[in-house]
Design a protein that fits this description.
Radius of gyration: 19 Å
Helix content: 25-40%
Order of helices and strands: EEEEHHEHEHEEHEHEHHE
Strand order of the largest sheet: 4-7-6-5-8-9-11-10
Number of helices: 8
Strand content: 25-35%
Length: 266
């Protein structure tokens, strides 16, 4: 079981009815969708992270199963970990598609969080016996050494926090874009498309145990799916309007998906 802690004082939070409360009286109400916002400071989870439009676009794209090969492999790693019903943390969970897929394939308990309240709201609506909360990756409100396995897909790597929340024999599964990931998309957007470096995140706290490649070809069936995929990439923020227009004229696209999975051990 993963224990959620108070983001103010660090004591365990206990849930009663629809409220999380610690021994010092700090309390956090559960939203109607079933998640709790544990961000502190002046900014709320609705003002940072992905917007409602981005979150829904991502949900619609992932729901079509385009990235299923990656989720299948993560599920397989969890099932082969040798840990009975492990406590799993989905770091930067997004709108919960990966968590739901993995929960249906692997015998585990999943707790997930993201900095975007809209993403977490959509994740919590999946109602698949999982726990979701809004939080910052630099200060994860989970008890020390309470997680058997963390997985972490396409998000910043915060080794100290990952190490802190993971048990001594625990695993951290990280996925990054592989060398050829979405290369056909980049050929349309850029005059000189580049290949990804596929380097593992650097760490001094964790030991890299294994690298696994997952590669496939997918067929995007409509303009909406092409646009949704584009919005999920960093290229969306660094592409000229002229290049975006070229992409908008496409009605379908065959593209490579290529992932590098790195398995670390604490």
């Amino acid at each position: 079981m993963i224990n959620i802690i108070c983001p103010v004082c660090g004591n365990c939070l206990y849930k009663k009815d629809r409220t999380y409360r610690c021994v010092n009286g700090h309390c956090y109400d559960e939203a109607k969708e079933g998640y709790v916002n544990l961000l502190t400071g002046s900014k709320s989870g609705s003002l940072i992270g992905d917007s409602k439009d981005m979150a829904r676009s991502r949900r619609e794209f992932l729901s079509k199963g385009y990235f299923s090969p990656l989720s299948e492999k993560i599920s397989e790693i969890i099932n082969k970990s040798g840990k009975a019903t492990p406590a799993v943390c989905d770091i930067c969970c997004g709108e919960g598609w990966y968590a739901e897929y993995i929960k249906n394939k692997a015998d585990c308990e999943i707790t997930g969080f993201d900095i975007s309240r809209e993403m977490v709201r959509l994740a919590a609506k999946r109602k698949n016996n999982m726990t979701f909360f809004v939080a910052n990756i630099s200060k994860i409100p989970l008890e020390d050494s309470s997680v058997d396995i963390c997985y972490h897909l396409f998000a910043p790597f915060h080794e100290k926090e990952f190490s802190r929340i993971t048990k001594d024999d625990g695993l951290i599964i990280t996925a990054v874009a592989g060398e050829n990931h979405l290369f056909e998309l980049k050929e349309i957007l850029y005059e000189k498309p580049y290949r990804n470096d596929e380097k593992p995140p650097e760490t001094q706290c964790l030991t890299l145990k294994e690298k696994i490649k997952v590669t496939d070809r997918i067929h995007l069936e409509c303009k909406e799916d092409i646009d949704a995929l584009f919005k999920m990439t960093p290229y969306f923020y660094h592409t000229s309007e002229k290049a975006k227009e070229k992409l908008s004229n496409l009605s379908e696209l065959n593209v490579t998906i290529d992932f590098a999975i790195f398995i670390y051990q604490k």
